[in-house]
Amino acid sequence: MLYAVLKPLVAWLMRLYFRLEVRGVEHVPRTGPVLLVSNHSSVLDPPLIGAVISRPLAFLAKAELFRIPLFGGLIRRLNARPVRREGADAGALRTVLRVLGEDRVLLTFPEGTRGEEGVLRPPKAGAGMLAVLSGAAVVPVYLSGTGRAWPRGRRLPRPTKITVHFGPVLALPRREGGERRDHYEAVSRAMMAAITELKDRAIGGRESRGRREPYPAVSGAGCAQAPTPLKYIQGRNGQHGNG
Hints:
Strand content: 5-15%
Radius of gyration: 17 Å
Mean pLDDT: 83
CATH topology: Glycerol-3-phosphate (1)-acyltransferase
Order of helices and strands: HEEHEHEHEHEHEH
Shape: globular
CATH superfamily: Glycerol-3-phosphate (1)-acyltransferase
Number of domains: 1
CATH architecture: 3-Layer(aba) Sandwich
């Protein structure tokens, strides 16, 4: 209820304050489970993405945030799900698989925690594991400008232009034997390659003075692989939430 009430207000404020621009949002499937995988530079990232897609968005946040009085309860009501940043978190894995099993949209950050604007870092295996176990359609996202608008350590955001780029649904690498973790890592690398492709397109678009062209299919892009049955497993997931 609170999410539905606040979403249009947040979307309006974001567009007004950050001159928010959105590209490729039509790539987000209208039905079925969807895993959005994005770069992460700011605490603005989840509300921005949630504001520009038509479907309700759930996202992962570090468990420490839920222990802050009032704030923890607020973000939980806004569809945040806690995840521990150290060691195994089988409970968080079961929670996010349940979210995807309900044909909802979940946002995760393969890099694990926030970094500097425009800098993409190696991914964690956890995002790949979520994609493989859930069978959800995986949509890459690149956020441009959030790290300048509200970087780590700054008390309040500045009015910097922000653009959200969505790419086509990915066809994930198939497992060719070997360890499961190796496969999860390969899937996470494919996600980051797609996000990098969007970043390169964003930079190229600025250099060509805003000329808009359809995003090309990234390596292996197309229809998502057929869904696999949801499984609840124990063990390391390697996935972090907002940092």
